[in-house]
Design goal:
heterodimer, A: 252 residues, 6-stranded mixed beta sheet, 4-stranded antiparallel beta sheet, 24% strand, globular, B: 221 residues, mainly alpha, 85% helix
């Protein structure tokens, strides 16, 4: 479980986050949604420690993230996996080397144990046999899956995904969503996904936090989205005429 | 892991820069010999002084300074672009989230690699420059081999070699730190990456020239 309390973040004069309180629950896919510029990415970067909040606290279970000492922070890092929007795969390394990288850096496992773990992870994301390919030799969807495999290779307790569906065709996007959801349930981890993909909201949003102008405008589950009367949320979720018609039909 | 990365950097900087260092230093030695032969012709200064001048110029100044100015362009821009590219592609963020100390993983091997490889390159440059001076003068009949070798063996001061290595080590450190800093803190897109790469070269060159003067003052006073 990750809890944020009164998170504020300013860049110079601009206050991007104006006081966020939310609990990201274990074993669930927690979604942060909102328009571009709403502060989603800043909140995610605060959660993973790439930005420090101007005010407020982030709790990883009972650990205060931004006041931990170096050793405790390093230990916590071992429990965190992240899938980046652009995948952040190392171009000069093969798929297997990319996935093995966190193990090479920190684990005392033998090479054969590491390779076995890498093969397990690649198999979990349906990429058996892609070990020796370079990121430039595989498709965008496959790169995402390699990113997921790398994120879970250290068996994290917390998984963060920044726009996991960006740049993917709808079918591949659904596959990635399902994969993230399955891994979350299987490994009982706390997953936080930053997205503005409506399919993800409807399919895997166990818990949703809708950000608008640096504040939480609405929170609930995917089932509650359809019934919400929040105008801002409705304008955002059902922005396209097709989705508006769909909602009206569902109401009837 | 870091050990392997350091060895890779040493190889890239050292072996990768050998051809350019070789070409530059052989011509610098040749031009120095030719130019001083022209300047000294008709004066009372003995011809063998040319060997002595080529040797000392290469060891004291040209091998270290010119080699490192060239390496600031070749190695410095490469480092800034490599690290800057990693910053832009979120590779550095990814490593930090994994718990990797990115400055020590990405920058330290480059500094250590350069601090070991560049002095060796400078030493090679000095030797090749002296050979270049020989090739430009003896086979062309400007003066005899005896004169050139006599010059090389005259008035030798070991302190100059120490000075050469001191300069090479300091310059190597400056090239890598300035360039890595420019790459590590790059913001924006490809235009900014290009600017950072250019800044890395320009600032490294300026830093080398300032350090060159300071070392010269300190070690000769």
């Amino acid at each position: 479980m990750i809890k944020v309390e009164g998170i504020k973040k300013s860049f110079g004069e601009v206050e991007v986050l104006k006081g966020i309180d939310f609990v990201f629950e274990q074993g669930k896919t927690n979604l942060i949604i909102g328009r571009s510029g709403a502060g989603k990415t800043v909140l995610l970067k605060i959660l993973v420690g790439l930005f420090a909040p101007t005010e407020g606290k982030v709790w990883y279970d009972d650990r205060d993230f931004h006041s931990m000492d170096k050793d405790a922070l390093r230990e916590l890092r071992m429990e965190v996996g992240m899938l980046f929007q652009g995948n952040a795969l190392f171009d000069s390394m093969t798929v297997a080397e990319n996935v093995r990288f966190p193990l090479d850096m920190f684990s005392n496992m033998s090479l054969s144990e590491k390779n076995e773990r890498v093969n397990d992870c690649l198999s979990r994301v349906s990429l058996d046999g892609a070990n020796d390919k370079f990121p430039s030799e595989i498709s965008g969807g496959m790169q995402k899956r390699v990113g997921i495999a790398r994120a879970i290779v250290y068996r994290p307790k917390y998984l963060f995904c920044d726009e996991p569906n960006s740049g993917l065709d709808p079918k591949t996007a659904i596959t990635i969503d399902e994969l993230i959801k399955d891994i979350t349930v299987e490994q009982n981890i706390t997953t936080v996904i930053n997205t503005h993909d409506m399919n993800s909201v409807m399919e895997i949003g166990d818990k949703i936090c809708f950000l608008d102008k640096g504040l939480i405008e609405w929170k609930g589950t995917r089932h509650e989205v359809m019934e919400s009367e929040n105008q801002n949320l409705n304008d955002f979720i059902f922005a396209s005429p097709f989705l508006q018609r769909l909602k009206e039909r569902a109401k009837k | 892991m870091y050990y392997k990365e350091t060895i890779r950097q040493m190889y890239d900087i050292g072996i990768g820069s050998l051809p350019i260092v070789f070409i530059i230093s052989i011509f610098i030695g040749a031009v120095t010999a030719q130019q001083f032969y022209y300047q000294l012709t008709g004066t009372a200064i003995p011809t063998y002084y040319i060997g002595y001048i080529v040797r000392d110029m290469m060891i004291i100044e040209l091998a270290a300074t010119i080699t490192c100015l060239v390496l600031a362009g070749k190695v410095g821009s490469n480092m800034a672009a490599e690290i800057g590219g990693m910053r832009q592609k979120e590779h550095i963020d990814a490593m930090e989230i994994m718990g990797v100390n990115t400055s020590s993983y990405l920058i330290l091997p480059k500094i250590i690699g350069a601090v070991f490889a560049i002095p060796v390159l400078v030493c090679i440059a000095a030797i090749v420059g002296i050979v270049g001076g020989y090739l430009a003068s003896v086979p062309t009949g400007l003066y005899t081999e005896f004169d050139y070798v006599k010059g090389l063996r005259s008035f030798f001061n070991q302190r100059y070699v120490v000075m050469m290595f001191a300069k090479a080590t300091v310059f190597a450190y400056l090239i890598t730190t300035v360039s890595c800093y420019q790459g590590y803190f790059v913001k924006g897109g490809s235009v900014e990456l290009g600017q950072a790469s250019t800044r890395a070269v320009v600032l490294s060159c300026v830093a080398i020239l300032i350090a060159d003067y300071i070392i010269a003052v300190v070690l000769t006073s």
